[in-house]
């Protein structure tokens, strides 16, 4: 108990360890994974107080108040709702005990300290998050352009004085076309599952 309290006071409890794949089922975060829907863990960092669980669908943060408290707050950040940006990695200095990965997901900033001896593994997470960030940015731009194109087409139809056929049917056809266009655009440009990215960069 005294060691745990001292560790908290010195800030050592904040230094995370990257958990091996075979031990994923032993952490608290595993209880909140949607295994039933095909969600799986690809990377997990655990400190005395927190767990940072990166799945193919989301970041799940199990936030503890202290190393000696059992109280936890579990927050889920789905990638498609929370774009990742400003990804950075900080290597350890000569006397440092830890390296650090930093990023913003949605509106939340994260700065996670990791044992400096695990820097090579942390680089894999860094590359994965950078790639997810790039894909999300590109898709967001393309989705915006798709919506803009639909608005231009709708405006052109509205201003056209040429009406041939039943007005109600024309209105129905236009609405159906617009709905399908939007549906296809969202399917193409909103990526929810990043299994391919994690498999490309992370070797478990």
Automatic annotation (TrEMBL):
Signal peptide: none annotated. SUPFAM superfamilies: PH domain-like. Residues 10-132 form the Bacterial Pleckstrin homology domain. Residues 147-204 form the YvbH-like oligomerisation domain. InterPro entries: PHb (IPR012544), PHb_sf (IPR037063), YvbH_oligomer_dom (IPR021722). This is YvbH-like oligomerisation region.
């Amino acid at each position: 108990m005294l060691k745990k309290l001292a560790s908290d006071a010195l800030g050592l409890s904040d230094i995370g360890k990257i958990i091996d794949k075979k031990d994923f089922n032993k952490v608290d975060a595993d209880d909140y994974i949607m295994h039933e829907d095909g969600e799986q863990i690809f990377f997990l960092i655990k400190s005395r107080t927190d767990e940072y669980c990166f799945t193919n669908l989301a970041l799940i943060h199990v936030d503890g108040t202290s190393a000696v408290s059992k109280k936890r707050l579990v927050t889920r950040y789905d990638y498609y709702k929370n774009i990742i940006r400003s990804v950075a990695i900080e290597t350890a200095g000569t006397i440092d005990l830890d390296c650090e990965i930093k990023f913003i997901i949605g509106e939340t900033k994260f700065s996670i300290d990791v044992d400096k001896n695990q820097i090579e593994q942390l680089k894999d997470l860094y590359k994965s998050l950078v790639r997810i960030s790039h894909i999300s940015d590109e898709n967001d731009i393309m989705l915006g352009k798709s919506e803009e194109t639909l608005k231009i087409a709708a405006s052109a139809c509205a201003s056209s004085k040429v009406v041939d056929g039943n007005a109600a049917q024309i209105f129905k056809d236009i609405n159906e076309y617009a709905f399908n266009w939007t549906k296809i655009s969202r399917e193409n440009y909103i990526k929810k599952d990043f299994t391919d990215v994690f498999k490309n960069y992370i070797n478990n």
